[in-house]
Amino acid sequence: MEEFHLKRRGTYKVEVVFGADTIDCEYVSGAYISVKNPSSHTVHLANISILYPFGKRNLFEKLKHALKYRRLPSFVGWCHSSLSNYDIDDKCPIALEPGTSIGVFVPEDVLEKIFEDCEERLIVTTHP
Q1: H-helix or E-strand containing 94?
Q2: Which of 15, 41, 97, 112 stands 20 to 30 A from 8 (CA)?
Q3: Considering only CA atoms, which of 100, 124, 104, 91 is closest in space to residue 36?
Q4: How far apart are CA 13 and CA 91, in angstroms?
Q5: Distance between CA 127 and CA 25 in Å, rounded?
């Protein structure tokens, strides 16, 4: 008789918390991005990017997106930007072992640069 094994995937949690850190002996405010692996499997991260609203989309554009791609338009008009675009080391690629985590600090001046052309000052965390 053949055994059946379920293939399990590792899961991870992403959190963004605002705080401060010391850079060159002075306090700098910004955001900490924390990625945690609470699962019992190793999780492989290729990179960490920031997701922010680049423009406002009206109801018609959201409906058009829903019909075209057959899914809810959660992030229509949002932009992904890799932290490496802002000279921030995201420590990736990395294999997060079970129960471990990594954290990346994004200084306030980088956040200001990101929000420069945005109508809304908001970042979110997403993961599959």
Answers
A1: strand 94-96
A2: 15
A3: 100
A4: 16
A5: 34
